[in-house]
Amino acid sequence: MSGGYDDLKTSWPELVGSPGHYAHDMIHKDRPDVQIPVVVVGTEVPPGFDDKRVRLFVHPDFNLKVALTPVVG
């Protein structure tokens, strides 16, 4: 690994179904440089790409489990 920008993780499919707080911690561990807003599925979000953001879409249930693969953008 060269340690450059191309080596940064950009998606976390393994977190689908995990509790939101756990997913947040894992993403932050891999990418402390990004903001991680938690969004309930069905909530409208503004369009646009942001390479310093990972939206964490969660189900609106008690555990707020991750519903969609978190990706940078």
The total count of strands amounts to: 2
* 3D shape: globular
Indicate the radius of gyration in whole angstroms: 12 Å
Structural class: alpha+beta
End-to-end gap? 23 Å
Oligomer: single chain
Structure description:
- The relative contact order is 0.28.
- A two-stranded parallel sheet has the order 1-2.
- It has 73 residues and is an alpha+beta fold.
- The mean pLDDT is 93.
- Helices cover 15% and strands 8% of the residues.
- The chain has one domain (13-73): Trypsin Inhibitor V, Chain A (2-Layer Sandwich), CATH 3.30.10.10.
- The chain has one helix and two strands; from the N terminus they run H-E-E.
Question: How would you summarize the topology of this molecule?
Answer:
Blueprint: H1 20-30, E1 38-40, E2 56-58
Parallel strand pairs: 1-2
Keywords: Protease inhibitor, Serine protease inhibitor
Family: Belongs to the protease inhibitor I13 (potato type I serine protease inhibitor) family.
InterPro entries: Prot_inh_pot1 (IPR000864), Prot_inh_pot1_sf (IPR036354)
Short structural summary:
The chain has 73 residues and is α+β, with helices and mostly antiparallel strands. The protein has one helix and two strands. The protein is 15% helix and 8% strand.
What are its keywords?
alpha+beta; Trypsin Inhibitor V, Chain A; two-stranded parallel ribbon; serine-type endopeptidase inhibitor activity; Prot_inh_pot1; protease inhibitor
